[in-house]
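Q: For a teaching session next week I want to show students how multiple molecules come together into a single three-dimensional assembly. I've collected the sequence lines for a complex. Could you give me the predicted structure tokens for the whole thing so I can convert them for display?
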Amino acid sequence: MGAKYDALKAHLADVENLNHAQGLLNWDQQTQMPPGGAPARAAQVATLARIAHEMFTSDETAKMLDDADAEIAGMPYDSDEASLVRVVRQDYEDLVKLPSDLVAELTRATSMAHEVWAKAREDNHFRTFQPSLEKIVDLTVQVAEHLGFQDQPYDALVDQYERGITTARIKEIFDAHKPALVALIAAIQARSDRVSDAVLHQEFDVDQQRAFSVEVVQALGYDFNRGRIDVAVHPFATSFSRNDVRITTRFNARWLNPALFGSIHEAGHAMYEQNVGEALEGTPLGAGTSLGVHESQSRMWENMIGRSKGFWCWAFPRLQTIFPAQFGRVDLDTFYRAINKVQPSFIRVEADEATYNLHIMLRFELESEMTAGKIRIGDLPEEWNDRFEAFFGITPPSDSLGVLQDVHWSMGLIGYFPTYALGNLLAAQYYQKAIQARPSIPDDIAQGKFDTLRTWLTENIHQHGRKFTSDELTRRVTGEPIQSRDYIHYLQTKFAEIYGL
Amino acid sequence: MGAKYDALKAHLADVENLNHAQGLLNWDQQTQMPPGGAPARAAQVATLARIAHEMFTSDETAKMLDDADAEIAGMPYDSDEASLVRVVRQDYEDLVKLPSDLVAELTRATSMAHEVWAKAREDNHFRTFQPSLEKIVDLTVQVAEHLGFQDQPYDALVDQYERGITTARIKEIFDAHKPALVALIAAIQARSDRVSDAVLHQEFDVDQQRAFSVEVVQALGYDFNRGRIDVAVHPFATSFSRNDVRITTRFNARWLNPALFGSIHEAGHAMYEQNVGEALEGTPLGAGTSLGVHESQSRMWENMIGRSKGFWCWAFPRLQTIFPAQFGRVDLDTFYRAINKVQPSFIRVEADEATYNLHIMLRFELESEMTAGKIRIGDLPEEWNDRFEAFFGITPPSDSLGVLQDVHWSMGLIGYFPTYALGNLLAAQYYQKAIQARPSIPDDIAQGKFDTLRTWLTENIHQHGRKFTSDELTRRVTGEPIQSRDYIHYLQTKFAEIYGL
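A: Of course. Below is the structure for the complete assembly, covering every listed component.
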């Protein structure tokens, strides 16, 4: 390309490098850092965030964007060049509204809050975390006010994670499938004795769990030459380049699910990042496009593949070899039903596919109300528990199993939760299309051949990075916007078979 | 302090945060990063280095230094304030001479060269590394030319690591003790059959080695709440704050020394950083003052403590408990003699105390000549081997055991090696003073009580951080400049006893 476009790319590469360095500081804090390092780390993250923000929101960026835009005039909408300028301009117009001091203050507050939250959760003591959360919500609402919104601050927050979406649109999508979920769960509850997950609650050596998780995610296509797996309190995937995408997991020596399905989930995120087009490496387009689309990848691999009968036709004999005492006399069907047991429970990340979106709807209500000033932070534990009772018919016995369970708020991620539910819906839409396009996918999976699906995902979704918004991508791939029809159909079919509904 | 001084401190804190972030990127690259991450990491490190360099060498820094200087006029020489302005001004005057592009190019070249060197060493193939090294030496000589020097480029390079020293002064110090070393080694060689180190070459479970290393460095005073230990090809210590100082080591399942003495060595570096005065945290003074002084700490703990009879009076029974099959029937004296066996060998980091400084003198010759253009990089393997033969009477059988053994050149650290030998001399000088001031130190060590020495070191050396130069500090602590008398006396006394000279 021309000199102006190249200058823009070089400038943006510096910002990307600062952001990725900050990403490494965060990864290290959650996986490696000794406890004493927290205050200095907060200061380091704050400096990097501030400098990156200043560089990106400088007048120089605006000038470079204009110059590059003129230079690439006429390039197609979906070209790398037009996409870069278009997407970066939108990022710029958002971020330029945020004062550097506010960004730095929020970064510092969240970096400090992480340890406070972890301790509060450990001690089951919300009041310890409350001042941190009050500060974070206050700063986040300030962010929303700077970004601007139509109806309420929460609109601006969700737009950060899923561009173009609003509180009202999310409510509409949630309202459209909540009744079907509630009905499905009620029907299952009436037959809850049909499925037991007892086989998953046995002693499982952690090193063996690790070995099996590694084998599985490697088979799915996660590339360890460009990644690694570590332990974190709240597992996540993070990318410093398409060639260095790391996942984290956590082990429970008496329960197979967290490490196994958690690893597959994070590998789903990571494969998205590892398969972004090489030409986008080092540019702001070199990452997943939205959190909802990201979650569609993790949830597809975790649930639509990882909790399917076909997958375990291939994987179960391997699991039996690794844990002969635990599974030697368990049949595939019993295991398949166990990993698909539906039961209202307290912890979102451990929720089954049928109840999961209800956990999100709860958080969506609370977040939109607390950022609108309708709920005081001090009242959150009570609000959480009351609504949880209304949604699920059970009350969390402790804040650690309730309002304190998620890391997100300590990280300033308010408005992020809805994307998990949107991801479930998108996963069903995309998977439906993938099977239409490549009908051998289910059979291939049953034979441990995952590249039929993975290459379809790479061609249709991964390679594009951030070139298209979630909505643009979804229409390109499926011909329609996000909808809950496919997801509800998927759940009803699957659980009708398992529970004999 | 006043507003001008505080503004300077805040500005410098940003630079420190960038430097520490870069430190983490390097630590990660050497201990955690998947291989695919190298190119992106090089770009990230280059961006951070360039921005830190630009911020520090900006006119703003000069202005802030002048303003703060005026504000703190009259503060004592050894006050934190006067020291900060004085030391930073010196750093500034050096760095301002270096063009940002050259710094970035060197950072990028060394970041890429690391993997190349590691592979070349693994493959025993110098030619693979040669182009990287040629580039690094070329860039380093350019650095020297920008910094300026009296006699030769190497003067400017050694001054970066040991401020105030010159090639001529190092040569003088080396020449002053080389004959005594050579004579000592010859006398020992004549009685080499007196000591066997066979007991160190057995099977040692790596996890057990790790447990013992951790127990030892913790007992010495390395604080794991503010640190951690990892595995690296070339072990090092690194600090991102006095409260996050990490060490690395490497394990050999058939040889005890690398992990054990390597861990003590790095813990010696790390305790220096962990015990820098709290008031200096986050400022450019919050680190060890020079590489020579740093090495005095690591070598003191590794050798003067870790290879002393007294230390093993306490530690050997513990080692016997961990490795009963290997040491159950070995007596303390045999073990003590084994760990002090003197024998010319190829690898510097595995060299004994008597031959160690000769390894440095070899590198000193080669570095000063190759930066003066007197040796071509392509001739280095031959030059290395010829001189090694002259120094030690043996010839390296491979470049991996010769010119490729050290990581330093791949990192652009030319002029660094002499500080290792200076560190040995300083260790003897400081330890001598410590025992004069606290005569119970040897007895305390024999009882596993290390804080008598450590607190003396903290009070006299560690707490000052970078407030004083190596020379200033050495004169304050010992009343004289660096000399080799104490070190030679220490070696002669110790080995006369062991070898019956």
